[in-house]
Amino acid sequence: MNTSSPIFWILYIALLGGMLYFMAIRPQKKEKQRQQELLRSVAIGDTVLTSSGFYGVIIDMTDDTVIVEFGSNKNCRIPMQKAAIVQVEKPEA
């Protein structure tokens, strides 16, 4: 195939675009969807890991913020955005 052919360049650009989609865009969309599902599943009483590495228990929630209680002395309560939650552990029944 001649590399100066327009068909070659169209196929080449399409191949690069497909590789970009499957290696970058698609995994990002899946990760974003997973994070949104995680944030929809949080409830009061769940133990969470924050993006800063702290473990705490959710004691109150609104649409986009949560109040997390850290430590065992029950005096450290910090409001934070739900987006700062990276892991959720449900309490055992």
UniProtKB/TrEMBL annotation:
How is it placed in the membrane, per its record?
Single-pass membrane protein
**Is the keyword ATP-binding in the record?**
no
**Biological processes per GO annotation:** protein transport
Q: Where in the cell is it found?
A: Cell membrane
SMART domains named among the record's database cross-references = YajC
List the transmembrane segments. 6-25
Signal peptide extent:
none
Report one GO cellular component.
plasma membrane
What keywords sit in the KW lines? Answer: Cell membrane, Membrane, Protein transport, Translocation, Transmembrane, Transmembrane helix, Transport
Which family does the UniProt entry place this protein in?
Answer: Belongs to the YajC family.
Q: What is this protein called?
A: Preprotein translocase subunit YajC
**Per the UniProt entry, what species is this protein from, by scientific name?**
Clostridium porci
The primary gene name is: yajC
